[in-house]
Amino acid sequence: MILPLTDLMTKVCTRCHIEKDISEFYRNKRNKSGRSPCCKICYRVYAKRYQAKDKYKESQKKYRSSEKGSEARRKWNRSEKQKEYHRIYDRKWRQTDKGRANIAKEAARRRELKRTPNRLTGTQWKEIKEFYNNQCVYCGKGNCVLEIDHYVPLSKGGTHIKDNVVPACHSCNSGKCDRHPLRLFR
Prior knowledge:
By secondary structure, this protein is mainly α. Among the domains are: about 5-50, Wheat Germ Agglutinin (Isolectin 2), domain 1, CATH 3.30.60.130; about 120-185, no CATH class. It is about 50% helix and about 10% strand. It has helices at about 5-10, 40-50, 55-65, 65-80, 80-95, 95-115, 120-130, 170-175, 180-185; strands at about 10, 20, 25, 35-40, 145-150, 165-170. The strands form three sheets. Strands 1-2 form a two-stranded antiparallel ribbon. It has a two-stranded antiparallel sheet with strand order 3-4. A two-stranded antiparallel ribbon has the order 5-6. A hairpin with a 7-residue loop joins strand 3 and strand 4 (about 35-40). The model has no long low-confidence stretch (mean pLDDT about 85).
């Protein structure tokens, strides 16, 4: 039996019972018609409710902590699709007011660093890392990439000189943010 062309171009949603254009339904190879039984709007409402349940959140947490979930995340982080997604997202973010303000703030910070008379040299940075046994000052982690951390933050009047710089791992450095280190351990 061959269906008329008009019947193929519309479909009735099983949830809202409204006849809609076929493009309003997600593709689904398992279904005879090649489309999902409910329309995109109804499916989104269903998915949002399902994802809000604690049972779903627990299963996602369990999956992410499993070996399979960790490997899937690593694979996604290395994929070109993910990199392209972030390129587009970053480009859009830079066009917002917050993005422009952040860019201006970073530019001002770089200008201020260039104006500092006693700048930190590469040899001084190596000496500082050796002094601290190539370990993070805050947590003691040693087998990681160490970043320059300003003991007194630049935004709080600190300088970019040898006496104000310590090695820190990424998590400690980003966690410290622009706070004084003594405030971290209270």
